[in-house]
Structure prediction request, 310 residues.
Amino acid sequence: MRDMPGHLARRFQQIAVAVFLAEVEAAGFDLTPVQYAALAAIAANPAIDQITLAGLIAYDRTTITGVIDRLAQKNLVVRRASARDRRSRELLITEEGRRTLEAITPAVEAAQRLMVRGLTRTEARELIRLMQKAIAAGNELSRAPLREGAGPERQ
Amino acid sequence: MRDMPGHLARRFQQIAVAVFLAEVEAAGFDLTPVQYAALAAIAANPAIDQITLAGLIAYDRTTITGVIDRLAQKNLVVRRASARDRRSRELLITEEGRRTLEAITPAVEAAQRLMVRGLTRTEARELIRLMQKAIAAGNELSRAPLREGAGPERQ
DNA sequence: TACTGATGATCAGCATACTGATCAATAACG
DNA sequence: CGTTATTGATCAGTATGCTGATCATCAGTA
Prediction:
C-alpha cells in the first residue's frame, strides 16, 4: 500500500494543503490554496472568463463558480458581465485583492519550501520534475486538464 | 506557478483519482480510492476499530464515518459493537467485500501504473521514493497523520 | 433567417477533507 | 469511590472536486 503512487499522491496533497493553510493563517490571512491560485491567475490575466481561468489552473468548470463566489464575497475579485458575450463573466482583481496577493506571497513561498522540507534541494527539484512529467502525460485523463493560455492562435 | 510543489501535488492527485475511477469502473466496480484503501485495510486487520483504521491509512477521523457508512451500505463491510469497549465499533469485511477486493485488484494495479505512464520505470521508482520521504517529514503536519500499526507495544 | 450545435455559467447531488462541538464510555487519579 | 481527563464515534458546517443536467447565448449553416 505504502508504495502505491495513488496513495502517496493523496497523502502528499493532504500535507501540502495543511502546510499551506497553516502558513497563510499564521500570516493573518484566510485563503485556501485553490482560492490563492485563482486570485493569482486573475491578477495576471485581467478580464479573464471563468472557463479560460479554469483551464489555466486546471480546475473543473463547476468548481470554479463556488471559488469565485467566495473570492467575491471577500471583496478580492469582481465578476463583471462581458460586453461582447453576454454568457460570460469577466473577472477582475480588486485593490484589496491585489494588496492581499502581495502580502500573502511570502507565506505561500514558505509553505512550498515546508512541503518538501524532508528533501535536499536536489531531491526537491527532482520531485518537481518528475511530478511535472507524470502530470504532462496524464493531463487529459482528468475532467479538468490544464489548458495553456490562449495567446496568439496555435494552429 | 507550474513549479510549485503544492500545485503539482493537487494536479497529480487529481489525475490519480481520475485514473483510478476510470480503471475501476471499466472493471465493472463502483469504488472510490478512499473506499478501496479502507476495504483493503479492514481485510488485513479484522475487527479493527475506526480510529486505528484512520491512523493506518491516514484519514481524518471525521471522514471515516462517512466512508464506512458507504462501504456498509454496499454490504462490503459490517460495523459491530465491541464487547470490551462499548464506545468503539469493530469493522469486519463481508464475503462480498472479500470477493470485490480480490476482483478489483488488477484494476487498481493497472491504475497505479497508468498514473506514472509518462515516466520510465526508474523515474517512477524515484518519484515514489521522494514522495515517501517528503511525506515522512511532513507526517505530523496534517490532521490525519499516518500511525503505524499498533503491533506489539513500541516503547 | 430559422435551425442546429456549441459554449459559458450555474445547479443539484454526491464523496472526500477539514474545524470544532457533542456525547457516551473508559481510564486515571486523588 | 468519585472526580477529572481522555477517547471512540458522530454531527454540523464549510470547501474542494466530480457527474450530469439545465439555461441562456452565440456561431455556423441550410
